[in-house]
C-alpha cells in the first residue's frame, strides 16, 4: 500500500463534549492523553470513566492499598491534561466481564454526561504490531460500543429514566485509541510534554513495572513519532474513528 493510501485523516473538530471510557488507571496515559490535552486547551469538555481502580496492577502492593494509590495517581494525571472529572465504576481489576451490568453502568454515564464523542482504548484481540490484548480492555471497549446504542434507546435499561437519565442519541463518533485499524489522528506536538507528565504521575505503577520516567518518555515519543509518520511528520496520536 502506498504512503498516501495509508495516511491518517484529521479527527473531527465540530464537537464540544467527550467521555473517555477505559478499564484501568494509566490506560489513557499510554498514548492518548496528548490528544486530551489538546482538546481541553481548545475549550472542549472531557470526562474520564474507569471501570476499575487498578487494584491488581502492582504486584508487590496489596489491592486494598493499590486502589487508593492508583485512584489518587489517576486523578492527578487527569488534571495535568485538563480533565477535572474522573469517575470509577468499581468493577474488579483483571477480571472485568462483558455483561448487562457493565453496559448499563456505561450507558448511564453516557446519558449523564451527554457526549458527542466517546473515546475508548483498543477493544480488538491484538495491539498494532500483533501483541495480544487483555480481557479487561476488550470487554470494557465492547461494552462501551454497545452502551452507546443502549444510551439512546428508551426501552433499554428503562430504570435509568426513573433516575432522571433520559435517552441520549447525540454520540456521533467512537474513537478507538491504539487500534490496529486506525484511520484518524491528532497533532500533539504542542501537548506532548503534558502527555509525558500525565504518565509520570503514575509513579507507583511505573515503579511496579520496573520502568523509569525516561522509559515512559521514550515509549510515548516513539509511539507519537510512529503515528506521525502517517500524519505529516508531526507528533501524533492515532484513532480508529467509528461514525454512528
UniProtKB/TrEMBL annotation:
Protein name per its UniProtKB record: Putative LmbE-like protein
A family per Pfam: PIG-L
Signal peptide interval: none
Example of a GO biological process term: glycoside metabolic process
Keyword Phosphoprotein attributed: no
PANTHER family: LMBE FAMILY PROTEIN, N-ACETYLGLUCOSAMINYL-PHOSPHATIDYLINOSITOL DE-N-ACETYLASE-RELATED
Matching InterPro entries: GlcNAc_PI_deacetylase-related, LmbE-like_dom_sf
Keyword field contains Zinc: yes
Source organism of the structure: Saccharomonospora cyanea NA-134
GO molecular function, one term: hydrolase activity, acting on carbon-nitrogen (but not peptide) bonds, in linear amides
Keywords: Zinc
Amino acid at each position: 500500500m502506498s504512503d498516501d493510501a495509508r495516511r491518517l485523516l484529521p479527527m473531527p473538530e465540530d464537537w464540544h463534549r467527550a467521555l473517555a471510557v477505559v478499564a484501568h488507571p494509566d490506560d489513557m496515559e499510554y498514548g492518548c492523553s496528548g490528544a486530551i490535552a489538546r482538546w481541553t486547551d481548545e475549550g472542549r469538555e472531557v470526562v474520564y470513566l474507569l471501570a476499575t481502580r487498578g487494584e491488581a496492577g502492582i504486584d508487590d502492593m496489596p489491592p486494598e492499598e493499590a486502589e487508593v494509590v492508583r485512584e489518587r495517581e489517576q486523578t492527578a494525571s487527569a488534571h495535568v491534561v485538563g480533565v477535572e472529572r474522573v469517575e470509577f465504576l468499581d468493577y474488579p481489576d483483571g477480571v472485568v466481564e462483558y455483561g448487562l451490568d457493565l453496559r448499563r453502568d456505561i450507558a448511564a454515564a453516557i446519558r449523564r454526561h451527554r457526549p458527542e464523542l466517546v473515546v475508548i482504548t483498543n477493544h480488538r484481540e491484538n495491539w498494532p504490531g500483533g501483541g495480544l490484548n487483555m480481557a479487561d480492555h476488550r470487554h470494557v471497549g465492547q461494552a462501551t460500543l454497545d452502551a452507546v446504542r443502549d444510551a439512546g434507546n428508551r426501552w433499554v435499561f428503562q430504570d435509568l429514566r426513573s433516575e432522571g437519565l433520559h435517552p441520549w442519541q447525540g454520540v456521533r463518533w467512537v474513537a478507538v485509541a491504539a487500534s490496529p485499524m486506525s484511520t484518524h489522528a491528532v497533532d500533539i506536538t504542542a501537548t506532548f510534554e503534558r502527555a509525558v507528565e500525565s504518565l509520570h504521575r503514575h509513579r507507583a505503577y511505573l515503579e511496579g513495572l520496573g520502568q523509569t520516567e525516561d522509559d515512559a518518555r521514550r515509549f510515548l515519543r516513539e509511539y507519537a513519532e510512529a503515528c506521525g509518520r502517517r500524519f505529516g511528520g508531526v507528533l501524533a496520536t492515532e484513532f480508529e474513528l467509528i461514525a454512528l
